[in-house]
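Per your request, structure below.
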């Protein structure tokens, strides 16, 4: 009987952690969306800009995979951001069928503001955590990620 209660307690604890992680992810998205709403940019747009900033010259396929969206959806978003002057497509020397995607100078202020908002959000989220606690938490998250990506 005690063993069954102990097992039930572990199951309940894991379920509560899973629920809280889900709620935390939603709260993080909502908070960031609220802070970025002043930029007149959608979550999809700023995510695209961030990926291209980290991977200049990436292909539409790479960007789509990184953002876990279809290539067609990524293409439409790239088209939109190109029309808005934030991104540009260039031919690739190594593959004439693929196009490389780059930020334009017009995206730089938006990217800088996104970085500022991101840093403030992270400061708020991780307030009171020591470096050692962050290392442990990172390890836990990495293990959870690995468990789901096997």
């Amino acid at each position: 009987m005690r063993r069954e209660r102990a097992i039930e307690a572990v199951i309940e604890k894991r379920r509560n952690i899973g629920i809280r992680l889900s709620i935390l992810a939603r709260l993080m998205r909502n908070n960031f969306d609220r802070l970025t709403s002043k930029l007149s940019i959608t979550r999809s747009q700023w995510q695209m800009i961030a990926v291209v900033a980290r991977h200049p010259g990436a292909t539409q396929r790479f960007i789509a995979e990184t953002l876990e969206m279809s290539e067609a959806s990524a293409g439409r978003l790239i088209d939109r951001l190109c029309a808005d002057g934030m991104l540009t497509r260039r031919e690739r020397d190594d593959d004439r069928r693929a196009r490389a995607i780059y930020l334009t100078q017009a995206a730089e202020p938006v990217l800088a503001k996104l970085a500022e908002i991101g840093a403030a959000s992270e400061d708020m989220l991780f307030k009171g955590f020591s470096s050692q606690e962050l290392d442990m938490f990172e390890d836990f998250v990495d293990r959870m990620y690995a468990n789901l990506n096997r």
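The longest strand covers residues 87-91.

Regards,
D.
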